[in-house]
Write a structure and sequence with these properties.
This protein is α/β, with parallel strands linked by helices and 322 residues long. The chain is built from 13 helices and 14 strands.
């Protein structure tokens, strides 16, 4: 089994369950988006949502994917930066508890914190204070972090730091890793489109996008978007919600159905999908099988609250894989 390294924003997620869209409208948060805010802003927003049902865990898109891979017994590690505080300790402890090797540096700011708002339609909207995660810089990227790994999974939220992402891609390529990129959010894609296509063409081997992200990237609907993305990288994946996903490598195209799931919360669905797909690749499985495992992982995470798969879900996943 090949080994997978992840890099992204080291965040602690607070999941907030909403009864309707009113709070999002009051806070002027576009539904389904990810908005960056200051520490003062996130403290203020958190104060205003006191009384709502909440839960907390280590998070961040790439870290969630790495957690999913670790749950499948893949050897993993994660690169990120946290603050010298309780949230940073919580994030590090969460990695170690899953046997994920932590390459964590400490910054001067408070640890990154994300509020994930979940509405009754299972849509999630993020407001994020990056904090110390934003202090990750090219000088932090040591060759020893990359040595011995076969795949690097990068979250699309790093697109906003151009010099850092360029350094990550160059370091991974220098050390012979296959590069997987999850586009993460349609608004992040739109804001960085002028450099994103060059990065994908020059460095990325596997690209994950949902329907909105694929349209922001290409201006096209899923099937045509898949075709355009596949011209830029080795493997293109476009996720289309209840309709499943589309996978393309060269002229090979696969339609992967979504599994039947009782949807409670879609937080982490894309991250779990990427974990399942990379697990299949790491084990040398064919692309259609990678897609089916990815669909299984995504289906199980959305049956619970939060971005992590519960014990019952893991039991069902292991049964299916065996």
């Amino acid at each position: 089994m090949k080994k997978v390294l992840g890099i992204g924003n080291a965040l602690v997620d607070t999941l907030v369950k909403l009864e309707d869209d009113a709070f999002l409208e009051e806070m002027k948060l576009p539904k389904g988006s990810m908005q960056l805010v200051s520490q003062d802003d996130i403290v203020d927003i958190e104060r205003k949502c006191e009384g709502f049902e909440k839960s907390m865990s280590g998070g961040g898109s790439a870290a969630n994917t790495i957690h999913g891979l670790a749950g499948l017994d893949v050897e993993t590690a994660f690169i990120g930066k946290v603050g010298k505080d309780e949230l940073g300790d919580l994030f590090a402890d969460d990695l170690r508890a899953k046997n994920i090797r932590p390459f964590l540096m400490q910054g001067e700011s408070h640890s990154g914190h994300a509020l994930a708002f979940v509405t009754p339609d299972s849509e999630r909207t993020f407001t994020t204070y990056l904090g110390a995660a934003l202090e990750l810089n090219p000088e932090d990227l040591q060759d020893r972090f990359f040595e011995g790994f076969d795949y690097l999974h990068v979250e699309g939220y790093l697109l906003q730091n151009h010099s850092l992402l360029q350094a990550i891609l160059e370091k991974a390529r220098k050390n012979g890793l296959k590069i997987s990129l999850d586009l993460a959010s349609f608004n992040v894609v739109e804001e960085n489109l002028h450099v994103l296509k060059n990065w994908v063409r020059d460095y990325v081997d596997i690209l994950f996008a949902n329907e909105e992200e694929a349209k922001a990237f290409t201006g096209k609907e899923p099937e045509l978007a898949l075709e355009e993305i596949a011209r830029l990288c080795e493997i293109a994946v476009v996720k289309v919600g209840k309709a499943g996903s589309l996978v393309r490598a060269g002229e090979e195209v696969y339609r992967i159905p979504a599994i039947k799931a009782a949807v409670l919360d879609t937080t982490g669905a894309g991250d779990a999908y990427a974990a399942g797909f990379l697990y299949g690749l790491a084990g040398g499985r064919p692309l259609d099988e990678c897609g089916r495992i990815a669909s299984l992982m995504a289906g199980k995470v959305i049956e619970g609250m939060g971005a992590k798969i519960g014990l019952d879900g893991w039991g069902e996943i292991r049964k299916e894989l065996s």
